Amino acid sequence: IKWLLKLAVSFILLSLAWVLIYKYFPIPYTPLMVIRYFEAEAKFKLRHQWVKLEKINPRLQLAVISAEDQNFYSHYGFHFQAIKSAVLHNNRSKSLRGGSTISQQTAKNVFLWRQRSWLRKGLEAWFTMLIELCWSKTRILEVYLNSIEMGEGVFGAQAAAKYWFNKPARSLTRDQAAAIAAILPNPRKYRARSSTAYIRKKKAWIIRQMKNAG
Predict the structure, then answer these.
(1) Pairing outcome for strands 149-151 and 154-155
(2) What predicted TM-score, i.e. pTM, was given to this entire model?
(3) Crossing angle for the helix pair 102-111 and 118-134, to the nearest 10 degrees
(4) Closest Cα partner for 76 from 162, 143, 137, 3?
(5) Which of 133, 144, 134, 146 minimizes the C-alpha distance to 104?
(6) What b/e string do you get for 183-194 counting C-beta neighbours within 10 Å, with b at 16 or more?
(7) Which of 17, 61, 156, 181 could bond 146 through an S-S bridge, CB–CB 3.0 to 4.6 Å?
(8) pLDDT of 86-126, one tens digit each?
C-alpha cells in the first residue's frame, strides 16, 4: 500500500510539473509525431512550426472551434451531452463519432498516445482536468492549433497553411480556414485542396457555423 501511495503521489507531481512547463514553453514534439515517424514505410518528413496564437488568423481559430467544439469557451474540459450522443451513435452505427472537446483532444495530442483503451481515456480525463485548471482557454487553443495533425506529416496551423495553401497561417482566407477545419476528423485521408464532395459540404456547414458565431 505504501509503495502504491508513493507511486500515485509521484505520478501526480510529475504530471502537474509537465503541464506547468508546457504552460509557458512551446511544444516541439508530440507523441503522435513520434508514432507517425515509426509508422512511416518511406522516409518521413515532419512539417511543424510553432507560432503564437496571434499569428494564427482568427478565421482559422473560429473555423476549428465551429467544427470541433462550439462550447469550448463555456465548458470546463468536458461536454457530457456530446459524449452521450457519441456513445449512442457508436452503439447504433458502424461509423465512429467522437465526443471529445478541444481540451480533451489537446490533452491526448500533447501528453498521450492514440490507442483506444480505458487506461488512455482515464489519463486523458486526468490531463484534461489539469490543463483546464492550470492553463487559460487561450493557451489551450494555442497548443491545440500548434499540435493537431492537419495532413500527412503536417502538424499545426502554420505548417498546414503552408502545405495546403502556400501561405502563413495569419493570411488564410475564410474558405481556406474552413477547408483545413473540415479535414480534421481524418487529415491523412482528406485534402483541404481539391477536396471531395463530402469535404465541400462540410466546409459549407463550417462557414455557416462561423457566420452564426460571429
Answers:
(1) antiparallel
(2) 0.88
(3) 110
(4) 137
(5) 144
(6) bbeebeebbbee
(7) 156
(8) 444 344 555 444 568 999 999 999 999 877 788 889 999 99
